[in-house]
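Hi P.,

Sorry for the delay on this. The queue was packed all week, but I finally got your sequence through. Input first:
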Amino acid sequence: MPVGKKWRLAAVLAATGALALSGCGTTSETSESSATSAAPNASKVEDIASTVPEDIKSSGKLIIGVNIPYKPNEFKDESGKIVGFDVDLMNAIAGTLGLTPEYREADFAKIIPSIQGGTFNVGMSSFTDTKEREESVDFVTYFSAGTSWAQKTGAGIDPNNACGKKVAVQATTTQETDELPAKSKACTDAGKPAIEIVPFDGQDAATNAVVLGQTDAMSADSPVTMYAIKETGGKLEAAGEVFDSAPYGWPVKKGSPLAQSLQKALEHLIETGDYKKIAENWGLQDGLIDKPVINGATS
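Then the structure:
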């Protein structure tokens, strides 16, 4: 997430009677994968590690559901290893808890139901903490994000007046389900042409659509947009300012004491300065928070 804290993702899907909200979504079969960390090594802190639920503690592993790619938060490098800001931070969290992180890829919409069912201990996929999602799982906030747009350099797109424009998004994100439909309705209510919302399974494809001129702009979490702008080497630029700030959070099973463990581990990394170092490594320092909370949704 980029410059300017915050963001929003979230889409609500129903899955087996449970809310399977999505925010960073793509399609991938569940599989196990290991990750490399560019983050500072985090040593086990006994008094924090002692708070981990016994079943997780005895396994020695923290099983994490993740959906990729969603650069720069979670994606695979050229060797196929899972990397990113979220990964570096979760590796440090797991180290503080005395656990080995085990990342398992899954469709975004399946992560929350898999946490509810006990397949995953925690989700790590740029989840926006929302009131609706909190009905299904608990969240531990770790970052502040918002939505921002990117356009071809010099295109002159105004996110607040994009009637008749084609806008790329990653499917099932809040941008697709909430933000753009609302903006499009405002257009049609005013007698103007609707916004053509163009969804893609992955964020890379959405970004590429703008670069190739297939769409006029893209809307995504601010860190994602800023990273896309950096990666395209001047082909894209920001359109407008960051808006709709909201907290990112790690979802865990409702009522699980793991939430307190994760909260304490992040508080420790904030105190040591490692949290800041990890964010700065990815250029995301503007989204740092001072204190993690459990269920900190603002809407």
